[in-house]
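in:
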């Protein structure tokens, strides 16, 4: 009998979708957890914020220790194992034990999620990464809805058991993930890596600010429509899934960044609708469809950007984990803000004003974000092309490019190293001069080409 072999991309999608469904339905403000709180008549606020903080630590910290794909797989499996053990005490009552168990689950699952970044890079070709990100978000949310309905309409313990079963299945597929022996660092044969610091900071800022609205939604929208449990238990994620499906299947020529502005308009409309409409079923459909549809657009945008960044880094676990931790941090800030609003009895109108202010800040940084990310990706393509050329071709590019003044021999040496992606410090070490001397040469090169940055000179010389 032939052995069934699952394609690596599908295998990674299955493993992560199941892991993420467990996380969404239970640990991370999941309906299973809320149902258990209601059953045992325990206040959930402290538990929820504790879980968010622990999950943030797991996501953010994992990449600083995981350096190989084999280690990433081990972390995923141990993370799933610890989450399984930490979930068992929730079948019984006990606040202190719950607190410890929730920290274990949130921290362990955070590490497991970050570790999957390695397999997002290794199991999915770059041109299919947005589809992988869309698939895991779609499938995990569908599974989450099924678990939520089980917890609400059948039993919170049955919902918990189902979420644990999903977690164990995630472990089965994670165990089958392919690993390689090489270090994550240096997997790019050219050794050319762009500086991700500035684009990553812009992306983190964007994710944190836009995700604050998610936290506001949990703390302000949901309580307002709490009496519609029969509807909110399943419909709230439907617009999110539909938006993901639409974005996933857009033609390749369509610029997805344009949809960010559509998403902004949808969020604005959702808060304005929340301010002026009543709390009827129709109002819920309008508010939730606008808000969650926008969330689907934004989430796939920044997930796919992080997915693209993985090819430009020597540590995909770190980039993926830090990127997702920004989302968790935004939810935490939004939750704290929403909790303060709820306890202060601030009116719906003032809530809308706060939310719209957040959106205006996001709109202000969107052009900067797009410019930096586009420059990062295009310049990396140019650098890779340059690195693959023969030395004679590289020198020809430098010698034939038009300048305002002739480059000296040393300036040509410095320029060639710039085009190989070297930093000033690395150039100084290679040429045996001080870093200040290199900075002087770089300044002179900029002046002679009429540019003001590395990005401009790379684009000027290599885009043709």
């Amino acid at each position: 009998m032939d052995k069934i072999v699952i394609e690596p991309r599908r295998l990674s999608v299955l493993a992560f979708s199941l892991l993420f469904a467990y996380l969404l339905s239970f640990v991370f403000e999941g309906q299973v957890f809320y149902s258990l709180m209601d059953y045992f008549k325990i206040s959930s606020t402290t538990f929820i914020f504790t879980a968010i903080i622990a999950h943030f630590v797991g996501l953010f910290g994992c990449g600083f220790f995981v350096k190989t794909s084999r280690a990433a797989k081990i972390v995923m499996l141990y993370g799933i194992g610890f989450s399984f053990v930490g979930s068992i005490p929730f079948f019984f009552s006990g606040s202190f034990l719950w607190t410890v168990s929730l920290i274990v689950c949130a921290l362990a699952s955070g590490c497991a999620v970050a570790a999957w970044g390695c397999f997002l890079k290794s199991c999915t070709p770059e041109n299919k990464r947005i589809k992988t990100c869309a698939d895991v978000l779609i499938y995990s949310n569908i599974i989450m809805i099924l678990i939520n309905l089980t917890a609400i309409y059948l039993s919170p313990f049955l919902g918990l058991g189902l979420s644990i079963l999903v977690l164990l299945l995630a472990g089965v597929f994670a165990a089958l993930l392919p690993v390689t022996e090489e270090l994550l660092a240096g997997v790019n044969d050219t050794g050319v890596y762009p500086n991700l610091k500035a684009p990553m900071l812009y992306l983190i800022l964007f994710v944190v600010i836009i995700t604050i609205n998610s936290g506001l939604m949990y703390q302000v929208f949901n309580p307002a429509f709490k009496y519609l449990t029969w509807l909110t238990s399943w419909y709230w994620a439907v617009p999110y899934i539909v938006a993901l499906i639409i974005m996933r299947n857009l033609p390749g020529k369509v610029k997805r960044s344009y949809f960010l502005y559509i998403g902004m308009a949808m969020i604005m409309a959702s808060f304005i609708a929340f301010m002026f409409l009543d709390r009827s079923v129709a109002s819920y459909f309008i508010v939730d469809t606008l808000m969650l549809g926008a969330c689907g657009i934004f989430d796939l945008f920044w997930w796919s950007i992080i997915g693209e960044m993985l090819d430009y880094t020597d540590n995909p676990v770190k980039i993926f984990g830090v990127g997702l931790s920004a989302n968790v941090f935004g939810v935490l800030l939004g939750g704290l803000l929403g909790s303060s609003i709820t306890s202060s009895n601030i009116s719906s109108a003032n809530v809308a004003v706060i939310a719209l202010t957040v959106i205006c800040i996001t709109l202000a940084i969107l052009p900067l974000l797009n410019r930096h990310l586009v420059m990062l990706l295009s310049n990396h393509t140019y650098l890779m092309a340059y690195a693959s050329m023969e030395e004679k071709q590289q020198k020809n590019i430098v010698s034939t490019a038009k300048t305002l003044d002739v480059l000296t021999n040393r300036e040509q040496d410095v320029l060639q190293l710039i085009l190989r992606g070297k930093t000033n410090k690395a150039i100084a070490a290679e040429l045996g001069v001080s870093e200040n001397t290199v900075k002087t040469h770089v300044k002179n090169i900029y002046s002679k080409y009429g540019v003001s940055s590395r990005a401009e000179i790379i684009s000027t010389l290599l885009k043709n």
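note: The CA atoms of residues 240 and 292 lie 5 Å apart.
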